[in-house]
């Protein structure tokens, strides 16, 4: 593989980006992101034929077809910092002409859905439900390195402020972003269709606020051993369960439905680029302290695989039915 000469837009002579090891030809307009590299094969099992497969570090890439629609599945690894790398390199592959060494004027129609797992601070969200991101609030600092071109909507500002005011994170700057409304609506419609067709094995789902942390343990309020007394926000999960923001159009109250480590960067950067993005996460753990003792607090591995497969099929149906 040829060496890279441009440190700002790192591409090889073959047109491969530095981390993704994929060229523009093999990157579809419809993309599924997963954190776990092993989860790429779970989604790829639905694709036929598969015409591209590549592995580099923790990033696995598979491109194939679902009902004649070209789909790319990419593993990001864990964290918003990794998502930032992948979103930048998707942007490069979609909008930078590697031969002419210049940016294109026309933005490609790109849709990205994250398929992930999460915990929930809400007592109304069940283990095994699919958490669909309507809004994402970043408890991390990844997108603090980017300035918005436009002021976020009044609702996004209120959601972000509510998370900050209701939690022990008042000393940490937060940021918020909305998921794509059309893409989210299409995902919900696909879930309804799936449930109608699978009456014996339906999936529960909930829409709401996703909070993305920069780590798994202390950053999500997990008290572990001798590090427990040092947590800055030991009651974070309980505090997030009390966040409630009214939205007049439509008339509803938005609550925090899940806590994970990727969606804030996905939604924020996609909004800057004009890409449609949303997240669908299987709720693996009930993080709240008021859970029904008759229900499982953690999803079994067998149930986890079933729910991930159902979510993958729902996302693929959504992307294959779209215009792009």
TrEMBL record:
SUPFAM superfamilies: Purine and uridine phosphorylases (SSF53167). GO terms for biological process: uridine catabolic process. Residues 31-319 form the Nucleoside phosphorylase domain. GO terms for cellular component: cytosol. Coiled coil: none annotated. CDD domains: UP_TbUP-like. It comes from the Eukaryota. One of its GO terms (molecular function) is uridine phosphorylase activity. It holds the Pfam family PNP_UDP_1. This is Phosphorylase superfamily, putative. It comes from Angomonas deanei. The lineage of its organism: Eukaryota, Discoba, Euglenozoa, Kinetoplastea, Metakinetoplastina.
